[in-house]
Specification:
alpha+beta; 5-stranded antiparallel β-sheet; disordered N terminus
């Protein structure tokens, strides 16, 4: 069974076009993705429509496939851990990339090689989740208990520019509002890529467009509030350092240096910097620590933190370092499984409380 869990923590610019069909942008192309029990079917849309090869790839996807258990949330480390130490889990997973996924390769003999590379890179299919889940389960009983309900949580490899400015939009915002602001940013400063089912999709803006004079004022007019200044100032800072190329160059830095550089940008704190490191910079051991992660750590791993009322810098580092010591080089991926499990538990409790409240009211 191949699981493509697109709704869970999927990037803001993806939407469910029809039941079971998701549409979004990868590499300045508009894609429509779906799945059955054994494969992903996809269409890559252009301004002229869907090319013949792409349609053939979609049709050929009905052929027999090697069955895998994989799914998606949101992006990956060349670093061993923040302190440079290998955990027992790290030593076991060092060769996990040798088990390559055939999901994309088997879609079609006629599928364009470039498209296959784009999908493989975006979903990071060369990383064996079967190996990682096995190692993490041996290293941590809590992971072993919750992970069976969340098979194949996979971090996406997202574009750094899109990730930086999307996270700035997310500051003190809910998911609906974030989605609205990111879409508005693309409408205002992106370029049309394709029109699919009557909807025109724009690319994510280039940094140079967001650094231009008048951007802050225009964004404020369109409801971005104080984030308008953060977007404009960060874009200007990136341009002064070398533009898109400089941002992409941060991938070559060690984790701590990359994390520090990102925090120089306006509106980027420690947690958001870790999100970007994990999802766009190839640092798979980055651990974004938010309220949910703090609660997981205090409840299941570091009970002495239960008396802490706030996540100080010291507490933040202690939590992140602990997860790295337990889960190793791919700690950020393991943390995402625990996060997803806790979030589902939290949503279930909210629903149960709401039902009980409605029952009492009806009486």
């Amino acid at each position: 069974m191949f699981f493509l869990r697109l709704p869970i923590k999927f990037p803001i610019q993806w939407r469910e076009a029809n039941p079971g069909k998701w549409r979004g942008i990868i590499g300045n192309k508009v894609w429509t993705l779906s799945q059955d029990d054994s494969h992903i079917a996809f269409q890559a849309h252009t301004s002229e429509g869907v090319s013949e090869n792409h349609n053939n790839a979609l049709k050929a996807a009905s052929s027999s496939q090697k069955k895998r258990r994989v799914s998606v949330t949101k992006a990956a480390t060349r670093e061993n851990s923040a302190n440079g130490d290998f955990s027992p889990a790290q030593k076991e997973v060092k060769d996990c990339t040798k088990t390559s996924s055939n999901i994309v390769d088997n879609l079609s003999d006629n599928c364009e090689e470039e498209l296959k590379k784009m999908l493989r890179n975006y979903f990071q299919l060369d990383i064996s989740l079967e190996t990682l889940y096995s190692v993490w389960s041996k290293a941590d009983g809590n992971f072993a208990a919750v992970s069976p309900e969340f098979p194949g949580i996979r971090i996406l490899n997202q574009d750094p520019v899109e990730n930086v400015f999307s996270f700035i939009c997310s500051s003190n915002n809910n998911i609906q509002r974030i989605t609205l602001l990111v879409e508005r940013l693309c409408q205002l400063y992106g370029s049309p890529l394709a029109t699919v089912d009557g909807i025109t999709w724009n690319s994510f803006p280039r940094v140079s467009s967001l650094a231009a004079p008048g951007v802050e004022e225009k964004l404020r007019e369109h409801g971005f509030g104080y984030r308008a200044k953060f977007i404009h100032k960060s874009a200007q800072m990136i341009m002064k350092k070398g533009g898109d190329a400089w941002l992409h160059s941060l991938k070559s830095l060690p984790y701590q240096e990359c994390h520090k550089e990102l925090m120089h940008l306006h509106g980027i704190g420690a947690k958001v910097s870790d999100c970007i490191c994990l999802m766009s910079m190839g640092h798979l051991n980055a651990i974004p620590v938010d309220t949910h992660v703090f609660q997981i750590a205090a409840r299941d791993y570091l009970p002495h933190l239960r008396t802490c009322k706030t996540v100080t810098d010291k507490v933040y580092r202690e939590i992140a370092d602990h997860f790295r010591s337990v889960f190793g080089e791919y700690a950020g991926w393991a943390h995402s499984v625990l996060f997803s499990a806790d979030l589902k538990k939290f949503e279930t409790l909210k629903t149960e409380k709401k039902v009980k409240k409605n029952v009492r009211t009806s009486r």
